[in-house]
Fold this protein.
Amino acid sequence: MVAIGTQKLTLADYLADDDGSEQPHELVDGQRVPMPPESDINQRIASLLFAFFLQQGIPFYRLRIGTEIVVLGSSATARLPDLLVLSEELALALEGASRSTVMMEMPPPLLVVEVVSPGQENRDYRYKRSEYAARGIAEYWIVDPMQQCLTLLEWVDGLYEEQCYTGDRPIVSPQLGELTISAAQILAGR
């Protein structure tokens, strides 16, 4: 086992390493970073979106909570988004895998959802935004309960274009079409 914190892990080290902890973590620039427990509202928002996407006809096997995604960084980086919507091709690529990790050679997810935790704004708005852009993820949602905004980022000509949803206006997803749910419903987590 590589000494965490003193030596940078490679992606292979990270994937092979089991620190014995039940606590989730991300690999950020070669360092194992423990993830704090999610707040109740963050859990409710992720669960609400999972259930909503099921109701919209997205098959359960294309929806993932707890699946990592390897992204480009200055060193090895693997993120743990709150929710992923997979393409059929990516769902097939993950089928039977020993670890639920979207590797670089796999197609990117159709949609990544991150729910912002207090004190973690830079992680979701800045770092993950550039990492998901470099990975070519077509759509990235930043759901921010503190700012009461759902920022929808759409990959267009090599850059993310963003739109902030607030209130009762239905979300229009480039990947999923016009949805029957609003930012207010999502942010309320019910």
DSSP finds five helices and 13 strands in the chain. The helical segments are 11-16, 40-55, 88-94, 121-134, 183-188. The radius of gyration is 16 Å. The CA atoms of residues 170 and 182 lie 4 Å apart.
